[in-house]
Amino acid sequence: MSSHVNTLPQVRTWRDIQQAIAPKAMSSEGRKRLQVATAKTVGVLFALGLAGWGVYEAMRIWEKNPMAIKSPVKSAPVKFVDSRSDGVLDQGWVTRTLALPKSAGLMELDLIALRKQLLASGQVRTAVLTRKFPETLVVMIEERSPVARVRAQVGAAAAKDLLVARDGVIYEGVSYDAALIATLPFLADVPLKLVQGHFQPIEGMDKVADLLSTAHANIPALFSGWYVVSLSRYALDGEIIVRSKDIKEITFGTRESDFFKQIAQLDLIVEEGHVQADHPALSINLAVGGSQVPVVFEIPAVPAPGAKKNPTVKPSSPAPAAVRSEPQRPSAYFTNLHFPSREL
Amino acid sequence: MIGELSQGRSLSIIGFGECQSRGVLKGAVMDFRSASDATHSALLAAESNAGVRIDEVYLAQAGGHLEGFYNEAAVNVSAADNMVSAVDIDTVMRLAKAKALPEGRMVVHNIRRPFRLDGRLVPDPEHLVGQRLEVGYWTVHGQENKIADNIHVIRGFNVPVAELILSSLASGTMVTSAEDRQNGVLVIDIGGGTTDYALYHDGCAYATGVLPVGGSHLTNDLSLGLRLTDGQAEKLKLRFGSGTVTTRDKSEKVWLNGDFAIGDRQFPRQAIEQITAARVWEIFEVVKKRLGATFVPERAAAGVVLTGGSSKLPGIAEAAAKVFGITARLGEAPGYINENLRDPGYSTALGLLFFGLNSSSEAAANGRRRSGFFSRLFANA
Predict the structure, then answer these.
(1) Which end of chain B has fewer surrounding CB within 10 Å, N or C?
(2) How far apart are the CA of A44 and the nearest CA of chain B, in angstroms?
């Protein structure tokens, strides 16, 4: 059947008639319409061609000289850099870091690249750059606050002290008060990873920051003696070890008990007089939890028979505890604690 | 007449223009320039009336050169389970349409009649079970050069012709209802130079035809019979012409102008009516003869519907009823058509818009895209 259908005669229909006619055969109105239609067609084709050429040119310029596209209009050069920061970074630092060319126009500035320059310093958490016409660049900076220090040595260079923020970012502090920095404890036993010239953020710094801020707020006198915070057991046991002037090792737990309770327990131990200069504690383990706090004391040196007591050695007076009134001290909440002590 | 399609579903008639026909005789272009000028002035008037530019034209075809024939084909259903497939339908349709035409003739319309599956009429045989599928087409064909002339007149306005539609089909669709066409109806469109007719059965056109005789022949008869100019004869025809002789008083006379000016004359009214009625009667007789056995009064329950400019002649419906032996009436445009466009002379133009709406809806329903921006852009240029 199909072969039969394929041999059917071709029937011509009116659609086979060529509709186009010569302009001569048209009426004047028809010719006018033809001219308009032709002009419209040419116009559309021209516009399309123009658009295509424009796209091609733009792509070509973008590949060769992007700045030519970025500065389509002549703008006034930047005269002022208005910097605002919530920290210690000042106008001078911002100006030095941005290092804008003298004749740079406001519209020519690559704000994204400038922002990257600012963020290259770990001290800057966020940076927002805006153009304020006609000639001012506004820079708003949010800074990181240092929580601790860490000593690092890269290659053969001399070791230097860096600052660590709450989010673990390690950076060189700029414009900080040296006295303030000196009060920050050092981080110890922290594996530092250097990637492309920058240290990777330290994990667990949020816990350390919580501990330090709690201690700083509640036991400022004891806190002033903390000089090392060790994270050697943080990864495995979730414990933070603090070394201080008075107690060689204070262990804080991060898993169950909150820092305020542990700080209160520590404060009570010190307050009750268990730790004294002539009866120093080697370690206090606050990570055990509950009301049990193992305290290890150092055996006082036994004077040789017949030896006279050194008259210059005075029993060290406990650290001034009356920073705050008595009921406000955290130890006031733990009056019935039991301290199983063990002498070595 | 200009219609505006909204969302492919509804059509609003937004403008129309008309002018005196020139350069066309019996539906064929005799003077290209005159015909173009007349057509283009009507198109311009329609555009200015509508306030838009015409995108495409649906063109009615009339003229003595248009003829029709019926051809049918049958195939055996190919599937083993005797279920009719789309391939069977396509095959039988192609076979039915494939009939070679004489040299210089080309198809204007292929009007399909309902399918027959094992002898029963079915509108859509796909997925029905049967053994023999038949279909017939009424093919309307015309002289290639005359059709091309018509198209070129429109193209001279730099507007493409989207579709050619037989004048009788256009007007017939407008003045009859679907129910009329289902029950059987004969539509006669008496125009200026031609008379078109279409016979409908079972909801589709069974036969169509064109007589090269129209209202202008009535005018010509009066002009010859009463020795008048064409203008005077036209005036008398419009004022006193009739499809049947109703005046019994031979002495009753009518004035040519009625203004008693020099040259105004009197004519016997009965003579005017006799001349016009004789021509009208003859037109109907020829239509009946052309239809031959296809016309069965019992299968035209909806009767004869008259339309076209000359159908306004008084008594013409009575004449048609007597000749065909069935009821006859004047066609009326549907109620939703504006009062100004309800004249029978507009029925063909309204029918063209109706066809345009249907073809757009079919295109939308079949997922076919209408010509896009670029094809229109280049088509007009």
Answers:
(1) C
(2) 9
Residues of chain B falling short of pLDDT 50: 367-369
Measured between beta carbons, the chain A residues lying within 8 angstroms of B159 are 33
Contact flag B107-A11 (C-beta cutoff 8 Å): yes
Instruction: Identify the pLDDT of residue B201.
Output: 86
- Residue B368: count of CB within 10 angstroms of its CB: 10
**Residue A60 distance to chain B (closest CA, Å):** 29
**Interface touch A8/B32, C-beta < 8 Å:** no
B97 touches chain A (CB under 8 A): yes
Answer whether A30 sits within 8 Å of B157, measured CB to CB.
yes
Give the whole-angstrom CA distance, residue A195 versus residue B147.
Answer: 84
ipTM over 0.85? The verdict is: no
CB contact A103 to B (< 8 Å): no
Among A8, A16, A26, select the one facing B156 at the smallest CB separation.
Answer: A26
Instruction: Tell which wins on pLDDT, A180 or B11.
Output: A180
- In terms of pLDDT, which residue wins out, B364 or A294? A294
B337-346 long-range contacts, Cβ below 8 Å, gap at least 24?
A: B337/B13, B338/B13, B341/B1, B341/B13, B341/B16, B343/B312, B344/B175, B344/B306, B344/B307, B344/B308, B344/B309, B344/B311, B344/B312, B345/B308, B345/B309, B346/B1, B346/B16
- What pLDDT sits at residue A204? 83
Residues 6+ apart with CB under 8 A from B317: B243, B304, B306, B328, B329, B330
Best A2, A10, A12, A27 member to test B by mutation, with max B CBs in 10 Å, is: A27
Distances (CA, A) of A268 to A30, A139, A275, B18: 106, 48, 10, 111
User: Does the distance separating the beta carbons of B91 and A1 come in below 8 Å?
Assistant: yes
Does residue B330 or residue A9 have the better pLDDT? Answer: B330
Q: Compute the nearest-CA separation of A56 from chain B (Å).
A: 23
- pLDDT (tens digit, 9 = 90+) per residue, A189-202? 888 888 877 888 88
| Contact residues on chain B for A26, CB-CB shorter than 8 A | 36, 155-158
Q: How far is B29 from chain A (nearest CA, A)?
A: 14
Question: What does pLDDT average to over chain A?
Answer: 79
pTM of the full structure: 0.56
pLDDT given at position B377: 52
Q: What is the mean pLDDT of residues A16-30?
A: 82
